[in-house]
Amino acid sequence: MVKLIVAIVCCIVLTTPMIQADDIYTSKYDNINVDEILKSDRLVSNYFQCLMDNGACTQEGDLLKKLLPEAIKSDCAKCSEKQKNGVEKVIRFLTENKSDLWKQVVAKYDPEETYSQRYLEKLKKAKV
Predict the structure, then answer these.
(1) 3-state secondary structure of 80
(2) Burial of residue 42, with CB atoms counted within 10 A of its CB: 0-12 exposed, 13-18 middle, 19 or more buried
(3) Three-state DSSP class for residue 83
(4) Residues 6+ apart with CB under 8 A from 102
(5) 39 CB neighbour count, 10 Å cutoff
(6) Residue 119: which of 88, 89, 93, 78 has the closest Cα?
(7) Among 108, 8, 118, 116, which Cα is nearest to 64's?
(8) How far apart are CA 81 and CA 66, in angstroms?
């Protein structure tokens, strides 16, 4: 669960650092290479520390921290398809490779695991 939230956070931070309008997130950062970020333990750790309030945040990280609770609760309703794909990629990565980080993110942003379970179910269905 923590991986899902961390993944969502990373994707949102990287792909939607600003709100363009009330109904959608900006596409300003849609060209960020999420794969390259996920390949870097240093970058993953930096975003994680930001989200957990244990380290400095970039502007994108600050925005991600701000938007993450809403994005989780709304099932990324304001995300573009590209952003949703990035979120899915991050969640898969975290749940499969960084489960310890995932658990911590879920504990902070979805302590009752209400929303993270929904995301995990979607990923399972998509994987089939």
Answers:
(1) coil
(2) exposed
(3) helix
(4) 1, 2, 3, 4, 5, 6, 7, 94, 95
(5) 11
(6) 88
(7) 8
(8) 21
pTM: 0.74
Taking the C-alpha atoms of residue 121 and residue 12, their distance in angstroms, rounded to an integer, is 20
The answer to whether 73 and 66 are in contact (CB under 8 A) is no
Q: Tokens for 65?
A: 């921290």
pLDDT tens-place string over residues 20-46: 446 888 787 777 788 999 999 999 999
Integer angstrom CA distances of residue 6 from 20, 21, 82, 111, 116: 23, 24, 18, 13, 10
For 39-89, the pLDDT digits (tens) are 999 999 999 999 999 999 988 888 888 888 998 889 889 998 988 888 889
Tokens of 91: 């969640």
CA proximity to 91, closest of 46, 67, 127, 53: 127
